Amino acid sequence: MKRVTGIGGIFFQAKDPVALRAWYQKHLGIDVQVWGGAAFTWQGSETTIWSIGESGGDHFAPSTAPFMINYRVDDLSALLQALREEGCQVLDKTDDSEYGKFGWVVDPEGNKVELWQPPAGQ
């Protein structure tokens, strides 16, 4: 079974996300959108999301890290099952939305890792 096929997104928190977004836009030329991030398109159809959010909250919980990486996968359900069988800390919650299917695993350092199966055709 193929596991990770690419990076779907990089999300991190900042004390002052508005100022940090402006810095990235001004100095690195990232086209930051009103929703707080940018979408990079590769090879015509693959997209990687980059986003800065407000510090705090529990979006990255149970991790205390100020970042989370989202990895693209082909078969979320099969991968989550394999990770469980391998003794990994897989979070019970999954999400199925118009943006695709999402699941989470926590790595040995306590970082929450997001796994994303894009909708069919993407």
UniProtKB/TrEMBL annotation:
Alphabetized CDD domains for the sequence: VOC (cd06587)
Signal peptide residues on this chain, from the entry's feature table: none
VOC domain segment(s): 6-118
PANTHER family linked to this entry: GLYOXALASE, GLYOXALASE-RELATED
Name of the molecule in the record: VOC family protein
Organism of this sequence: Duganella dendranthematis
Biological classification of the source: Bacteria, Pseudomonadati, Pseudomonadota, Betaproteobacteria, Burkholderiales
